[in-house]
Specification:
Radius of gyration: 32 Å
Strand order of the largest sheet: 1-2
Subcellular location: Cell membrane
Keywords: Cell membrane, Membrane, Transmembrane, Transmembrane helix, Transport
Largest sheet: 2 strands, antiparallel
CATH superfamily: MetI-like
Order of helices and strands: HEEHHHHHHHHHHHHH
Protein name: ABC transporter permease
Shape: globular
Membrane topology: Multi-pass membrane protein
Family: Belongs to the binding-protein-dependent transport system permease family.
Low-confidence stretches: none
Distance between the termini: 82 Å
């Protein structure tokens, strides 16, 4: 027992029973609120970096591109002239700038062939086939190779007396065309390279969609005596319809904006120039950045319109399979 200065025992004053309770209760309430706010903010912190990159490297350049399309600028001079819609008017009055879209028709046809072949192999490899994992890797591997490297590889394949000519010679073919020198053949050659490169992406998307279909549907179909064709028509196609639409959108938009392979292999020569190659040449070869930006805006608008039409004609509604 403690004593006071006078020597008498000190009296301990008791605190009210409920005095500390509100403070403790307030602290307990405040802590969960802070934890809850932290949990809510965590997802936004994770996506913040991706959003910053998306804005800086996608949306800001698109806005800047639209601004440049209203200028007469060579890309180097610090002085530029505002021309408004003059660059767009020049696009309309110069049909040779839009004439290169005819080259995209070859890639449109290649897209159909590519999707059909990818769907065919995806259906086969989705069933029990020997070495199917090996074939999946072999078919997907070209998509992993850099497009510039693929272009240089096929330059050796298509050159006179190259790999392709040698193989055709072994098969007895004597009259071999100039695969990259003949205007009637060059776009077929480049389209074939494009199919070979992007085939693996469509294959993987189709495989993933097919494998997501419940296995009991195929078992029930087999018990009912359904053939492989009937399973494909009534189970696989309805079940992967959204992925078919997605691949078609990717293929068509890619056909409109082909650049890498023809630019590396031919530079747009012999009638192989695409709209993107024409845009790049307009900007960096002829130093008309304003006109090239207008061409890029038109291409972006065209891709968006085509995508919208495809989404309207091929809905994403998933068929309920039971």
């Amino acid at each position: 027992m403690s004593r006071s200065r006078t020597g008498h025992p000190a009296l301990k004053v008791a605190e009210p029973v409920g005095a500390a309770a509100p403070a403790a209760r307030h602290q307990r309430v405040r802590r969960p609120l802070a934890e809850r706010a932290g949990r809510r903010a965590t997802p936004y912190l994770f996506i913040a970096a991706a959003l910053v990159l998306l804005v800086v490297f996608t949306y800001v350049p698109v806005v800047s591109m639209f601004g440049y399309s209203l200028l007469d600028w060579d890309g180097l001079d610090p002085v530029s002239e505002f021309v408004g819609a003059g660059n767009y008017a020049e696009l309309v009055t110069r049909p040779e700038l839009f004439g290169v879209f005819t080259v995209s028709l070859y890639y449109f046809g290649g897209t159909i062939v590519q999707l059909a072949a990818a769907l065919y192999f995806a259906v086969i490899l989705s069933f029990k086939v020997k070495f199917r994992n090996f074939f999946k890797g072999v078919l997907f591997f070209p998509y992993l190779i850099n497009g510039v490297a693929i272009g240089f590889i096929f330059l050796y394949v298509f050159k006179p007396d190259g790999v392709l000519d040698t193989l055709l010679g072994l098969l007895g073919v004597a009259d071999k065309p100039l695969w990259l020198g003949d205007r009637s053949v060059i776009n077929y050659s480049l389209t074939g390279v494009s199919i070979w490169r992007y085939f693996g992406l469509n294959l993987v998307l189709f495989l993933g969609a097919i494998q997501s279909i419940p296995a009991h549907l195929f078992e029930a179909a087999q018990m009912d005596g359904a053939t492989r064709w009937q399973q494909f028509r009534h189970i696989i196609v309805p079940g992967i319809r959204p992925v078919i639409g997605l691949n078609l959108i990717l293929g068509v938009s890619g056909a409109l904006s082909v650049f890498e392979i023809p630019y590396v292999m031919t530079g747009g020569a012999n009638g192989s120039a695409t709209f993107v190659i024409q845009t790049v040449n307009t900007a960096f070869k002829y130093h008309k950045v304003g006109l090239a930006s207008a061409m890029a805006v038109v291409l972006l608008a065209l891709v968006l319109v085509v995508t919208w039409i495809q989404r309207r004609t091929i809905p994403d509604d998933t068929t309920e399979l039971s």
